[in-house]
Write a structure and sequence with these properties.
60s Ribosomal Protein L30, Chain: A; Wheat Germ Agglutinin (Isolectin 2), domain 1; 2 domains; five-stranded mixed sheet; two-stranded antiparallel sheet; binds zinc ion
């Protein structure tokens, strides 16, 4: 099934650990953002993603756009929407991509609930798998306007994270980045030690 899909879709699956409709949606949203910003290679633009969801849809942004948590290029401001703002730190240009409304049928939702509870027959599970695969295929192949919306937005993008000094906590001896240090009895304390009650 994956043979006809682009190579980076495979990378996204490997990173996420399973294939699911949310992952496919995130993949399409991330691609659409990249195109709308006019980039082919995400490294060109020093992109930053502000995610309104922290579920399956978020992971493709880390792979397709290189907006990983560790690089300080992914910020989560949950609103419960499958929406993501992607901006370029160099040009200041930004777009917000969002999935268009889509509802599974009541029957399909009921079947999914039964599968989640583990109480399904083999036949029902096969039906669930087939429907799910069909939906994933649909998400991966629908034209953009039937699946998602892209809107230009003006936002203030988060600043690059500075490098911090890491002094040692004078109570436990562990190193801690400066903004997280506290004061206790006039000494440097980590958060854990700052609130520790002296016995
Ligand atoms: Zn998933
Ligand atoms: Zn400490």
């Amino acid at each position: 099934m994956t043979a006809t899909y682009p190579e980076d879709w495979q990378k996204v699956i490997e990173f996420h650990g399973h294939v699911c409709p949310g992952l496919a949606t995130g993949y399409r949203l991330a691609k659409a953002a990249l195109v709308a910003l006019g980039y082919k290679d995400p490294e060109e633009g020093d992109l930053v993603t502000i995610a309104e969801s922290d579920r399956c849809t978020i992971d493709p942004f880390q792979i397709v756009l290189g907006c990983t948590i560790g690089k300080g290029k992914l910020y989560i401001h949950s609103t419960g929407k499958q929406a993501f703002t992607v901006g370029c730190r160099q040009s200041g240009k930004a777009v917000r991509v969002i999935q268009l409304p889509y509802n599974y049928s009541a029957e399909s939702n009921a079947l999914t609930k039964r599968v989640m509870s583990g109480r399904v027959s083999d036949e029902e599970y096969r039906r669930y798998k087939t429907a799910r695969e069909a939906r994933i295929h649909e998400i991966l192949t629908l034209p953009d306007p039937e699946l998602l919306k892209v809107e230009p937005v003006s936002v203030v993008l988060p600043e690059k994270e500075p490098i911090h000094d890491s002094p040692c906590c004078e109570f436990c001896g562990e190193q801690v980045m400066e903004p997280w240090t506290r004061r206790r009895e006039g000494k440097i304390a980590c958060i854990g030690c700052a609130v520790a009650v002296v016995r």
